[in-house]
User: Fold these one by one.
Assistant:
Number 1:
Amino acid sequence: MRPPSGQRFTDIKSTLRDRNLNTVCEEANCPNLGECWSGRDGPGTATFMLMGDRCSRGCNFCDVQTGGMEALDPDEPANVAEAVAEIGLDYVVLTSVDRDDLPDQGASHFAETIREIKRRDPGILVEVLIPDFQGEPEHVRKIIDAEPDVIAHNIETVERLQWPVRDRRAGYEQSLSVLQQVTDESDIHTKTSIMLGLGEYHHEVYQTLSDLREADVDIVTFGQYLQPSRTHLDVFEYVHPDVFETWRRVAEDELDFLYCASGPMVRSSYKAGELFVDALLR
Ligand code: SF4
Ligand code: SF4
């Protein structure tokens, strides 16, 4: 992957620094940064990480630090909205750490950020990648009521591997129920991501796709699991790009997902704006 560079990259970085904001793109050293931030015709996609950089959970595939969470920054919703306007993004992805320590696990703060962005420019498309909110419907409803364009929640892996891959407080059924609630209570598009290379069998992946379709999930992405450090889960295998392409075809042609982004470097928000708009125009 080509490293990001150029004036636009420098401008975006300084806007983020000025407002003390975090993006997953930078925090995770995402290899797609150059492609996503530049976009096809200009602005492109960036993923903001809300509610701090410390998580109340500890998933065994994830590099975010566990514990030591700080109080929420009440100015964060406005700061994110200002940064989005200044950078000139046309598609924004918001995600967060899990905040099981907060009374509503941060749902109101998340919802307020969506509203601030839409208040400034109703034309901006907002995708949110939300926690499971412990499966509490009233917390999920706060996000639905803020009317983002896409609600994503990651199932991460097949049912058998949920633990050890995810924190024990997460779960297959719980994640499916979050996605099902969104489709039951709104017309908002739903999305989820699956990592490959953790030891899953093909029939298990197929079953997961079927369960997601059963819950009316619209969009699915597949990417290769990469081990962030030696203390994280081992990579079981590097999946061949042809296999990623096969899953894309199964998802789009056989199971009728709106679209599927699938490839070793694909991440949940990979070129999310371009792919979403293209799929709607198809
Ligand atoms: Fe940022 Fe997501 Fe693109 Fe990576 S894939 S650069 S995290 S928007
Ligand atoms: Fe990482 Fe999310 Fe798990 Fe927290 S809940 S450790 S941010 S994957």
Number 2:
Amino acid sequence: LKEKMHLRRKETLASMCDERARMLQDQFNVSMNHVHALAILVSTFHHRKHPSAVDQKTFGEYTERTAFERPLTSGVAYALKVLHSEREQFEKQHGWKIKKMETEDQTLVQDCTPENLDPAPVQDEYAPVIFSQETVSHIVSIDMMSGKEDRENILRARASGKGVLTPPFKLLKSNHLGVVLTFAVYNTDLPQDATPEQRIEATLGYLGASYDVPSLVEKLLHQLASKQTIVVNVYDTTNASAPINMYGPDVTDTGLLRVSNLDFGDPSRKHEMHCRFKQKP
Ligand code: WA2
């Protein structure tokens, strides 16, 4: 009987965990598709229409009104690819300077408004944000290539033509760990088999979405009214020997554990959901 009870408990935990993992993965996938569609919208109505039909006001309104299509995201933004030779002309045209993301004092950067951020130092190229959803307006004019995680995402997105994810890191103006999803925008319809060099050459900009994981997973799990029953953790397990806890308490518990796989659509990153019962049998 004891064995039967144990088996039953194990199955219950597994099905609860799998259901939650699938919900999170599905919502992530839905929002990823909509971020992809936004990249196509910018390509069609900003880059391919002359004059452009998109400005900050239009982008801000459209992304705010369609926010319901992107569950789990805290905001979307569009950064332009600007070569150093184009910087002066770009800054004159926009009436502001390209800003650097990191200041000497990392604790201060969270409180910085674009006005008191340092100008970006000389680089081969930059990725200043020109359009943003209201919720992330603090990143307008910041060079996204001046942040390590954002930079690596931009380089990988444009060379691959796929949506790519950062590892979890502390987003600007947020106290939580989050991830950024990036799609490159190109100036031509590239063939499926285009080389990375062709893709880099054809790149015009980067459409990105930020995910504030803890508050958004919390919201999702809240809808399921299971919080009295199980404890949920979400990990980035890309580096199997050093998993990063993205959501949930630090655990030392050695009781019954269910690990459900999470596929967030970027094959170079791995994620898992870990579930445990709150109460011992
Ligand atoms: N968006 C919001 N908050 C952030 C952030 C970010 N990146 N990076 C750090 N905190 C415009 O990939 C291009 C968005 C980057 C896209």
